[in-house]
UniProtKB/TrEMBL annotation, chains A, B:
<keyword id="KW-0804">Transcription</keyword>
<dbReference type="Pfam" id="PF01638">
    <property type="entry name" value="HxlR"/>
</dbReference>
<dbReference type="InterPro" id="IPR036388">
    <property type="entry name" value="WH-like_DNA-bd_sf"/>
</dbReference>
<dbReference type="InterPro" id="IPR036390">
    <property type="entry name" value="WH_DNA-bd_sf"/>
</dbReference>
<keyword id="KW-0238">DNA-binding</keyword>
<dbReference type="GO" id="GO:0003677">
    <property type="term" value="F:DNA binding"/>
</dbReference>
<protein>
    <submittedName>
        <fullName>Helix-turn-helix domain-containing protein</fullName>
    </submittedName>
</protein>
<dbReference type="InterPro" id="IPR002577">
    <property type="entry name" value="HTH_HxlR"/>
</dbReference>
<feature type="domain" description="HTH hxlR-type">
    <location>
        <begin position="11"/>
        <end position="108"/>
    </location>
</feature>
<keyword id="KW-0805">Transcription regulation</keyword>
DNA sequence: CCAGTGAGTAGGTTTTCTGGACTCACCATA
DNA sequence: TATGGTGAGTCCAGAAAACCTACTCACTGG
């Protein structure tokens, strides 16, 4: 018998995680978004082994999520910065942080508070671009576009 | 010399990823949110090896993100379902999917379209709960709550 | 009785992570 | 000019995870 075909559901979540889902990648992105883009800062702040960090950085550069900008000639030194695409991953970081703050922490134990220009603390909320309402699970219907990938809960194709 | 202390930045993103950041975990959550909660469905749809899937499921159960509900006595069969906490991770899945759809796919090649009750296709957007505005990177200021964890870009503590 | 299914477990190999030391280029100071 | 320090990595051996294949166990349906 031929080996298992191994074709999981085609999915943009999976594709995105293939780029940024490895250990430390999103922490690197966090630091870089905070402006801490130097190698040793990344090592200290993420806890990644230097070795692993180097391969993660290469991958994120290749994926167009980070860029490497010189901040000193002689000794050549670089700083990693998010690209536009990298910055567009910030919502992922926000929603992860919000979940952790809600479920893993006491109210007075949040390690970081983010302030929005409006002057309030940022509590991120995901809304529907079309109608502006908060997105709730019960309000969603999934429509797989490929044959054979059914969903049994919210919807049928 | 004593070994490196290895204390990375305290962070809810890291804490959340410690629970759901391993390979396949978020794909399992995706399937479970879609209503495909049985072991063999999860194997097929995520592509995870059966033994890895078993350990991921245990971890997600322990973390209170999934529950195991019987759908048949004799033969005892269970189905995994998201808890409230699990459903609250859906925004993470939405934002990951939106990013992948935007950056890794052509417009006519999205593997899944989600319809909101409002009748439109869901395009998720992260907004500030206080003022309702779309969250943009430039509008944020990060305030680390612990000493020593500076940010050099958006803000100082 | 036999084949088939759903939900795992077991074992052995391959891949990846990890921690530590090492390099290389440069600067500062004595 | 030696001496030490920093930033940005690389290299390596041991530990841990992932992977694949096969196997079990409890049924069910014909």
């Amino acid at each position: 018998m031929a080996a298992a075909p191994k074709n999981p559901r085609p999915c943009s979540i999976a594709d995105t995680l293939a780029l940024v889902g490895e250990k430390y990648s999103l922490l690197v992105l966090r630091e870089v978004c905070l402006g801490n883009g130097r190698f040793d800062q990344l090592v200290r702040n993420t806890g990644a082994p230097r070795d692993i960090l180097a391969t993660r950085l290469r991958r994120l550069l290749d994926a167009g999520i980070l860029t490497k900008e010189p901040y000193s000639e002689r000794p050549q030194r670089f700083e990693y910065r998010p690209t536009r695409a990298g910055l567009e991953l910030e919502p992922v970081l926000m929603t992860l942080m919000a979940w952790g703050d809600r479920h893993l922490r006491a109210d007075d134990d949040r390690p970081m508070v983010i302030e929005h220009v409006c002057g309030n603390e940022l509590v991120p909320r995901v809304t529907c671009r079309a109608c502006g309402e908060t997105v709730r699970h019960e309000d969603l219907m999934a429509h797989p576009q490929a044959e054979g990938w059914t969903v049994t809960g919210p919807a049928a194709a």
